[in-house]
Design goal:
The structure holds 2 protein chains of 2 kinds.
Chain A lengths: L1 E5 H8 L10 H16 L7 E5 L8 H14 L3 E5 L3 H13 L3 E5 L5 E5 L1 H13 L3 E3 L5 E3 L3
Parallel strand pairs in A: 1-2, 2-3, 3-4
Antiparallel strand pairs in A: 4-5, 6-7
Helix pairs in contact in A: 1-2, 2-3, 3-4
Chain B lengths: L1 E5 L3 E2 L4 H11 L5 E5 L5 E2 L1 H16 L11 E3 L4 H9 L2 H8 L1 E3 L13 E8 L2 H22 L6 H20 L3 E10 L5 E10 L3 H14 L5 H10 L12 H12 L3 E7 L1 E5 L9 E2 L5 E11 L7
Parallel strand pairs in B: 1-3, 2-4, 3-5, 5-6
Antiparallel strand pairs in B: 7-8, 8-9, 9-13, 10-11, 10-13, 11-12
Classes of the chains: A alpha/beta, B alpha/beta.
């Protein structure tokens, strides 16, 4: 099954109901721990987790590292990032590249893209296909097999 | 006895060493300090937050003269200067640190104009959230319409500001201040610029990095080496491999928009110098000043060649 995690909702519950930005390490740590907890206590086997950043304002480098990089390092399931804006990518991409890691982004049209270190990005997409979590579409792009 | 410290008439990063020299000399014997700003004609955001850091340091080191007294501050006498310092939020913060002499006008800290973020205290992560939230509301229009930055650059600006403020929370061991302002920089560029200034009177980069970095540098270890390690090599006092991303991220952002960063800590100052500036990359042996002071300048886009 696919687990959906609304990062904005987690942020509002974790830190403050008024801020929409993922900034500072303490905030990133609290949000990540809540996401990890949600994934660990999900009912049924989670094959893939959609981490949805819709309605999240700014993400700084510290939060990108504390949330995205550390979640990927723990790898409780395959992670797919959605609702990612250009501004979010500006923080996430260099942080992942610095760790020689990659993450999958699901664009608004449902196609997948891997960002981060180039070698890790290629390997990640190949793994998704090999595990039948993603397939090549007629247009040559990748999409998730699970809805 | 009271020791006098003159605040430079044009108080910015260029004249800060003159101020730091007077501060270092006056604080040597623990007498009460008098910061004399009566002749001040102009102060940049860097000057204002730097003056607060000096007041913070004076209070914590007994520069109030003992007996719990605060250091003295004579306010500028020029009405326009006084109004600007008030609008910039300086006196709101200074009231806790100094015994202020002079008539401070009852003007609210600015909610419009070129003061994008008045002098704002940064003590905890919650303060950084407030700063980032506020700056995004106000900076978007200025960055895009006045500086010609891509509207998408606003989020990068907020990220850079967040990381600069977090240096205080994570490393200073005390609180500090941040201020952001847009102004015409006629002397240097004849262009509009946005300036971020962050200052604290905490432990500084050398002290923060010493446990993990001093052996690596050996005899070279000092304020300059610590700044080099932090800004150029991206090292952090934490062993977590993800640390040190903040200053690296600021550098990337500034490289894209032809901006400048300079950090002063202790007796050294390091800068990433764009083509339009003639600053030196690294200065050592400066007058000692506590904590760290960060200056970030983003110029109006287009030709920035001198």
């Amino acid at each position: 099954m696919i687990q959906h995690i609304d990062v904005h909702a987690v942020l509002q519950e974790s830190v403050s109901g008024i801020y929409t930005d993922l900034v500072t390490r303490p905030t990133g740590r609290v949000v990540r721990e809540r996401i990890e907890h949600a994934m660990a206590t999900a009912h049924g086997a989670v094959a893939l987790a959609r981490i949805d950043f819709t309605r999240v304002g700014c993400i700084d480098y510290s939060c990108a590292d504390e949330i995205v990089a550390k979640l990927l390092r723990g790898r409780p399931a395959v992670l797919v990032l959605t609702g990612i804006s250009d501004g979010h990518r500006e923080a996430i991409e260099p942080v992942l590249a610095g760790h020689r890691m990659a993450a999958v982004i699901e664009r608004s049209d449902g196609t997948l893209e891997a960002v981060g270190a180039p070698d890790a990005a290629v390997a990640l997409l190949e793994e998704l296909v090999a595990r039948r979590l993603a397939v090549r579409t007629p247009g040559g792009t990748l999409a998730l097999t699970l809805a | 006895m009271t020791r006098l410290i003159e605040v430079p008439t044009q108080f910015d990063d260029r004249s800060f060493d003159q101020f730091a020299s007077a501060f270092a000399g006056a604080t040597a014997d623990g007498e009460r300090l008098l910061f004399d700003a009566h002749a001040a004609e102009w102060a940049s955001p860097y000057g204002l937050v730097g003056l607060l850091a000096a007041g913070q340091a004076a209070r914590s080191s007994g520069g109030g003269g003992g007996g719990g007294e605060r250091p003295l501050l004579t306010a500028p006498t020029h009405a326009e200067v006084l109004t600007y310092w008030t609008r910039a939020g300086f006196f709101r913060e200074a009231a806790d640190l100094f015994e202020i002499h002079g008539k401070v006008p009852r003007v609210k800290a600015a909610d419009e104009s070129d003061v994008l973020l008045p002098v704002t205290p940064v003590r905890a992560a919650e303060d950084v959230h407030a700063v980032v939230s506020k700056i995004q509301e106000r900076a978007a229009a200025i960055l895009a319409s006045e500086l010609g930055l891509d509207p998408k650059a606003t989020m990068g600006f907020a990220m850079a500001l967040s990381e600069a403020c977090q240096n205080i929370v994570e490393h200073a061991g005390t609180g500090g201040w941040v201020a952001v302002q847009a102004y015409d920089w006629r002397r240097k560029l004849a262009k509009r610029v946005v300036v971020i200034a962050v200052a604290d009177a905490g432990v500084g980069f050398r002290h923060s990095l010493e446990p993990t970095q001093s052996k690596r540098f050996g005899a070279r270890w000092g304020d300059a080496a610590a700044l080099e390690a932090a800004l150029i090599q991206g090292v952090s006092r934490f062993r977590d491999p993800g640390r040190g991303q903040g200053l690296a991220g600021i550098r990337r952002y500034l490289a894209r928009w032809d901006g400048k960063i300079a950090i002063r800590s202790g007796t050294a100052r390091i800068a990433i110098v764009p083509k339009w500036d003639d600053d030196v990359p690294l200065k050592d042996g400066l007058p000692a000043f506590p904590g760290a002071q960060v200056l970030i300048i983003i110029p109006e886009q287009g030709s920035t060649k001198r």
